[in-house]
Amino acid sequence: MASLLLQNVTKVYKGNVTAVKDFTMDIKDGEFIVFVGPSGCGKSTTLRMIAGLEEITSGDLYIDGEYMNDVEPKDRNLAMVFQNYALYPYLTVYENIAFGLRLRHTPKEEIDKKVHEVSKTLGIENLLQRKPKALSGGQRQRVAAGRAIVRDAKVYLFDEPLSNLDAKLRAAMRVEIIRLHKTLNTTFIYVTHDQVEAMTMGTRIVVMKDGIVQQIDTPTNLYDHPSNKFVAGFIGTPQMNFFNVHAIRKTKHTYATPLGTNKELKLTLDFKDEFADREFDAILGIRSEDIYESDDADALEATVKVVETLGSECLVYLTFDNKDNKLVMDGDNEFVMKVQNRVEYGLDQRIKIKFKTDRVHMFDKTTEESILK
Ligand code: ADP
Question: pLDDT tens across 146-204, in order?
C-alpha cells in the first residue's frame, strides 16, 4: 500500500521530444488511477518513470513520502503487468508465478503458499501444471497478473494489459481486475487508450493529450463536467455533439443561438464571470442522451439521416438544414440523438428536437476550455 506524489514530472527524449510535461498529481493509498488518452500522449512514459524504467528529466517523484527519482526500479517495490505477457514458455504456470520469489530465495513452503493463494484469487488453481501454450489469452493474462501480485508490492502498475484480448474477454478481465483491486486493497495505476476501460475501472482518471494532463477527476465528474472540449469529446460514446453558437450572458441569464438559426436557447447554467455581459462565439456541447423530441414552439427542426437500433435504444443521426454555415462541428454536419426506446423514422423525415438546457456544455471558441461556472 502506498501513496505517490508527482510534482512537475517531465520527460524529454533525445531529439527534444517532450513526451510528458509538468505532470503533477497526488495519488492516495488504495486508489485505482487510470491514465487515458490517445496513442502517443505520454501515458506509458509516465508509468515507466514511476516504475524507474525511464529517467525523469525534471520534476520529483515520491512514493510514501520518499524521494524516488534516483532509486533503482528493483528497490521501488512496485510490480508491473505489461501488454505482452512475457511468460516463460518452458515453465509451468506454477513456476512462472514462483519465478520472482525463487530469485529472491524465498523459502520453498512460503513460495508454495503464495502461489496457491494468488492462483486462488485469480481463479487459475486448476491450471498450475500447464505450460503457457496450453492456455487461452485470458488465462495467460491472469498468470501474468499472478506473477506481479505474488510479490506483495506497494503499487501495481498496468500498461495496457488487456489490449491483446478480444472484446468479450476484455470485459470479463476488467471485472476481474476491479475485483483484484478490492481484494488487494492496494494502489493501482493503469494505462489504457480505451475510455470505456478507464470509466469502468478507475476511481480517478487522468486524461492526457500531447504529454499534458487535461483533467484529473472521477469518472462521473469527467462525464458531467469536462474541463475542455478535448475531454468532453474523448469521454463517452457516442461522442458529444458540438455546435458553433453565438452565446450571451446578460444579467442573470445565459443564452446560446446556434449559428444560422434565429432560435435563442435559454440555458439553465451560468458562465464564468469573465463572460458576464458579453456576446461571443462559443462551442456548445451536448451528449446524445440530452437531446429529445419535442413539439414546443422553440424546438429546432432537424432531418433524420440514419437510425441505428441497438436493441434497447436507438441512435438517430440528424442534420440541420443550414449545411453551409458549419453549425455542427467535427464531422459531416451530422449529430446524434440517443432515444431510450425503439423509434422508426423515414429517411429525411423532419422532426423537432430540443436540448436539455441544464445538460449543455459550453466551451471557449479559441481556448476550447469550459466556460461554465
Ligand atoms: P502513449 O503511452 O500515450 O501511447 P508514450 O508515452 O509511449 O505514449 O509516448 C509519448 C511520446 O514520446 C510519443 O510521441 C512517442 O513517440 C515518444 N517516445 C516514446 N518513447 C520514446 C523514446 N524511447 N525515444 C523518443 N521518443 C519516444
Answer: 888 888 788 999 998 888 777 877 888 888 889 889 988 999 999 999 999 999 999 99
The closest residue, in CA terms, to atom 20 on ligand 1 is: 45
Which residue is associated with the grid cell 525511464? 54
How far is it, in rounded angstroms, from Cα 116 to Cα 104? 18
Of 162, 143, 142, 154, nearest to 99 by C-alpha is: 143
Task: Check pocket membership of 45 for ligand 1, CB cut-off 6 A.
Answer: yes
Decide: 233 in ligand 1 pocket, CB within 6 A: no
How much distance in Å is there from the Cα of 43 to the middle of ligand 1?
8
Centre of ligand 1 from the C-alpha of residue 103, in Å: 31
CA–CA gap between residue 203 and residue 207 (Å, rounded) = 13
User: CA–CA separation, 138 vs 136, rounded Å?
Assistant: 5
19 lines ligand 1 (CB under 6 A): yes
pLDDT in tens, 251-282: 778 888 887 777 888 888 888 888 877 888 99
